[in-house]
Specification:
mainly alpha, Arc Repressor Mutant, subunit A, 2 domains, 5 helices, 2 strands
Length: 127
C-alpha cells in the first residue's frame, strides 16, 4: 500500500468492497494500492463536501426534540405501525400537526430518518 499521508485509511473489508464495486462496474480488477488510493481520495472528497461554508463539520447529533421524535418513531415501528405527523406532534406535545410535519422534515433533512424502497419511514441511526 502507498505511504499514508492522509488521516483516512480503508479497512480490509472496505478495500475488498471497493474492488468488487469497481470490478462490477468496469470489468477491471483494481490492484490493492490503486484501490486504497482511490478509496482514500473518495473519503477526502466527501469530507470536503460535508463541510459547511463556515468550515465547521455538520452535526449529526439530534437535538433533544429530534431525539424525542425518534424515540416515538422507533416505538411506532416496533409496533409495526408507521408514525403519522399527528402522532409525532402529540408525542412531542406540539399544538399542531404542522409542527409535527416540520419535525419530520427536520429529521429527513438531518438524515436521521429516510424512506425505504416501499416508502416506509426507517431510522438511519440509533437513538
Amino acid at each position: 500500500m502507498p505511504e499514508n499521508t492522509s488521516k483516512f485509511t480503508l479497512s480490509p473489508k472496505a478495500l475488498t468492497e471497493l474492488k468488487e464495486i469497481f470490478h462490477d462496474e468496469y470489468g477491471y480488477d483494481l490492484p490493492d494500492a490503486e484501490a486504497h488510493e482511490t478509496g482514500v481520495r473518495l473519503l477526502e472528497l466527501f469530507e470536503v463536501l460535508l463541510e459547511s461554508p463556515d468550515g465547521k463539520k455538520p452535526s449529526i447529533q439530534p437535538t433533544a426534540k429530534q431525539s424525542q421524535a425518534m424515540v416515538h418513531i422507533r416505538n411506532s415501528l416496533q409496533e409495526q405501525k408507521q408514525p403519522t405527523v399527528r402522532s409525532i406532534a402529540a408525542a412531542l406535545s406540539l399544538k399542531s400537526s404542522r409542527s409535527g410535519l416540520r419535525m419530520l422534515n427536520s429529521l429527513f433533512a438531518s438524515r436521521l430518518i429516510c424512506r425505504d424502497s416501499t416508502g416506509n419511514i426507517v431510522l438511519t441511526s440509533d437513538i
